[in-house]
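Troubleshooting log. The previous structure file for this entry was overwritten by mistake, so regenerating from the original sequence record. Sequence copied from the archived sheet and checked twice against the printout by T.R.
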Amino acid sequence: MKRAIAGLVRWTGFGALLRFACARRGVTIVVYHDPDPAVLRRHLAWYARHYRFTTLDAVAAAMESGRWDDLPPYPLVVTLDDGHRDNTRLAPLFREFDVRPTIYLCSRIVGTARPYWWKTAAADRIGPEPLKRVSDPERRRLLAEAGDDPDRDAAPDQRQAMSWDEVRRMADVADYGAHTRTHPILLQCDDRSCAEEIALCRSELEEQTGTPCRHFAFPNGDYGGREVEEIRRAGYRTARTIDPGWNHAGTDPLRLKAFPVSDDVDVAWLAVQLTGVPALLRRMKGLLSRGGRDGGTTAWDGAVPKAGRVRV
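Regenerated output below.
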């Protein structure tokens, strides 16, 4: 099915037409998590042929000043979520392709041996999706009862996140944004926890990196009006969703659209993902499964995960 859709997009020229119509002046933001360097090299080479790399700071400045023409044609921003340990292997690629990504960090996981909660044996047994649908205290309780307390460090050799030294060493090739402290589903947090996850992540990152933290990304792409208001109150310049689409001068900077990209996808399917077609199909499938009722914010991660991994 994927091969047929990719062939159709290429044969009809739909991807190229959409890039010209939507991406020439609209900002494309792509979302990765833990890509293999060989895969990302192919992706960056493809982007370099079809887009011009820019940064979130440049996009925010263009939005704030009204000088949208300051951005290059076909502007593209690369982002990575969570701060996975192997992101450090990507630094040579960022230098080679002269791209400065934003890496969104979880401030209470980076610099520790605490696992990402969805990458634990307990989450595998319970199922990550059910855990996303319960309150945050209940999620923590279920994980702890199943043997994986989210606040407990694993063995040092099982560290999943970057260390603070690694974060600082990559500061010459990457910017850093906030992705909450512990990667909860913010909609499942009470008001106090939601505010702390958003605001304290920023202050903790600034303390560790010594640089301003201006950008935020919603864990799992889930957000509502409360979350946007807390981000505004905390002083962020932008907040990135995973709602598919392009960003323009009138886009709300605290609801930036983005295209999630599979960490292990080939370039043919990458081109399809940047049309938004997979997101549309998944959304339609979700609506049909709910009997046509739109449940609000769509939290699809847009990716076909690697075996044994769940992308949040």
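The longest strand covers residues 75-82. Archived copy saved in two places this time.
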